Amino acid sequence: MAYHDREWGIPLHDDNALFEFLVLEGFQAGLSWFTIPRKRENFRRAFDQFQPAIASHYDEAKHHALRADAGIVRNCLKIGAATLKTPKPF
Predict the structure, then answer these.
(1) Is 86 inside a domain boundary?
(2) Residues that are catalytic
(3) Per-residue pLDDT of the chain (90 residues; tens, 9 = 90+)
(4) pTM of the entire structure?
């Protein structure tokens, strides 16, 4: 409720905030919406506070660390989409 009432549909002009919403919406696809808000702080930690300039330079070691992080959704295709990289299988 709080997310919907205070964040959803509010105009944004901050690149990091827009990137955060884009990534979180992508990870939410196919899951219960309640999953993502509960893991939001974990996502912020894992994705370096959603700084696109940093996320776009993640290497294979960082991708592996993200896929192993139980605090986030560990779908390798979603991780690859969020970091603009084609994921390699485990």
Answers:
(1) yes
(2) 3, 25, 33
(3) 677 677 777 888 999 999 999 999 999 999 988 899 899 999 999 999 999 999 989 999 999 999 999 999 999 999 999 987 766 665
(4) 0.85
